[in-house]
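PROTOCOL LOG
Step 1. Enter all chains and additional molecules of the complex.
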Amino acid sequence: MLKGFRSHDLCVLLQPRAMNVDLEMDATLQVDISDALSERDKVKFTVHTKSTLPNFKQNEFSVVRQHEEFIWLHDSFIENEDYAGYIIPPAPPRPDFDASREKLQKLGEGEGSMTKEEFTKMKQELEAEYLAIFKKTVAMHEVFLCRVAAHPVLRKDLNFHVFLEYNQDLSVRGKNKKEKLEDFFKNVVKSADGVLVAGVKDVDDFFEHEKTFLLEYHNRVKDASAKCDRMIRSHKNAADDMNRIASSLYTLGTQDSMDLCKFFLKVSELFDKTRKVEARVAADEDLKLADLLKYYLRESQAAKDLLYRRSRALVDYENANKGLDKARAKNRDVLQAETSQQLCCHKFEKISESAKQELIDFKTRRVAAFRKNLVELAELELKHAKGNLQLLQSCVGVLNSNT
Amino acid sequence: PKQDSLMDDDPEDLFAGATEEVSLDSPERDVLLSDGPSPAITPITPPTSVIAPRIGHAHDDMFTHSSFDEIEEEEGGDSFDVHISVSDPEKVGDGMNAYMAYKVSTKTSLSVFKQRDFSVKRRFSDFLGLHSKLASKYLHIGYIVPPAPEKSIVGMTKVKVGKEDQSSNEFVEKRRSALERYLMRTVKHPILLKDPDVLQFLENSELPRAVNTQALSSAGILRMVNKAADAVNKMTIKMNESDAWFEEKQQHFENLDVQLRKLHASVESLVCHRKELSVNTAQFAKSAAMLGNSEDHTALSRALSQLAEVEEKIDQLHQDQANADFYLFSELLGDYVRLITAGGSGDLELYFYFIFFRIRGVFDHRIKTWQKWQDSQVLLLKKREAEAKLQFTNKPDKLQQAKDEIKELEGKVQQGERDFEQISKIIRKEVGRFEKERVKDFKTIIVKYLESLVQTQQQLIKYWEAFLPEAKAIS
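Step 2. Run joint prediction.
Step 3. Record the structure below.
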């Protein structure tokens, strides 16, 4: 059980255009995840809302939600035509404790092959890892809700309010096979569409630039995210090795000749401490760098989706134009064609207008998030390196004075 | 047909077939169970080689009390001042006959050397030859002779065939480093330092090519030891103080072996992961650079490029650290694991086997000769009684012969006892010296290793301190 956990680090990933203004009657809406419980195969999030909006029955209330319900909410945004012109906040990734559970299991199996101290140490390590993953998933879910709550239009969404307030199970069982297959084909069509549409050069320079930029950026963020993960994993592996080295040195220290005993024990202590620092470095890199990249991978995808939707609207508009010309030429169903063309035009212009603003906001958010995280990354790396240095120097000093 | 041995020959051992058979009649065996005093060992060095007499006395005297004590005193007076480096590996020749020649440079102020600063060219088989000679001369007397670096058929073949790639370069570097450590360990031994073969190795510009470098391989020693063990086990041996001390030392080294292996494995794993980290960091750096290129906010783009540069420098740092992990920490442990390891090619365990049975052999030989003497005394008495009856129908020659034989026997027994004490003394000293050196080795090298870690952190701090303002400059 996690009480009062806040996702400070990830909150900056969202940067509301305006702070708390923008709603009618200057009402406020604050959402957070105040508690979370990890059960065998699911996580239960306690979504806590504070709001002065009139449509809520109370000013402050909480409900319990599971991951599927977040996905339902996200999908409802995607499927809503009215939101075609917005960057839909990316859905939080599914809580995944498989790797961590597997490691804990392996540890249990290998209990016989290590000393009691080693076992306890590794168990603590893995439990800490489990906890870290848990905290992360809570943060990801919270960020999603905060993004929605910060968005001037999405925050008014009815489904969102139901999600926040309805204290019964939303009964949004996960999609069954048929629906999943439908989704799959939809995505295939969309990307094929996207490829087709992406080939058409845009009249508007702004969007043409954005398209080129986003396509390249997204791919590079993907690559950077993957490589960052690999780098951090190696770091963790090295820290694990140091743990084992510390244990071995400790055993040697209790067994060996008098002269070396104290020496080994001191070095063992050093490795133990320095390993903890290394593990923290890896964890901080994970939080500041890896998570940042992962998040912007998802956001840049959402931005790309927006562009595709706009392109599709453009295609529809152009088709409607052609349809109108044809109708005028044949002098048949002209009114119908005109209405259709006007609708498409209106839709396209509406999307374009909001998309422009969304993309500008996206850039602002992105730059701010990177700045904050890179600065914090550098500060943490410095802090840890200095800490490590002090540990090492003091140990070397002691060892040298003893010989 | 090969004599059976407990240990299979090293599969990589090129000379497996050509190993000098250690037969029952071999000189080594005689040395173990000889009747006489500790024999002067005929050096394997061929007579044609030039050996300028270094010390005032010949070989034999080295093993008597007096010169041993003398050497002890010399030890105290002369501060250890020999530094050897192995460098400049150079490929000589082509194809399968090619070999690597290493420059062996010595810097010293000790009087036992002809010069203060000199170097020679040696190849790997020269090192093996040196070790072989030293082992055959000193092991059975009770001195711990440092083991030579291992052969590697695969590694050498790559080098011979001419593959100038990273793995063969690493192999040569590993070998160079191991050869250097081997020579330093050898000269640190006060007795070995003054051995003519060692001096010749370091000083002579030409060395006769060592052929039978397997003459006294570990496998050979083990075979020899087992033959001796079989013979000695046939008698019931009384436990005495020496045996208890040996058993305790043996146990100590066995425990040490287990722990060192574990530690060695963990350090090897660390080396591996650090190398991985270096590679992954380099890849991430490239990726971050690409990301920086596509970022259209100028200041952020610049900061990302800087991040990429920092990561690139850090990757090099990891690489260097991995090398330090390896060459300092891992190789140190590897050397000692090889020295101590049970059942493998380790020498220390075999050394103990060897000496243990040597001592037992001498001890039991003492019992044997004593018994023999007792028996001849009884025989003499009987003879005397018999002859008393036939007074003066005597055979004075026979009587005198008996008396002479007895006197000789008494002498042998006394010598045997002296040998026994001598070898015990040497062994205790050797083990003490070995442990002392091990302690020093571990301490020195581990501290050096920690200092390398210090440097790494200092560099890291520099890099991140340079990056921080860049990150803050994003607006």
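Step 4. Note key features.
DSSP finds nine helices and four strands in chain A.
Chain A touches chain B through 57 residues (CB under 8 Å).
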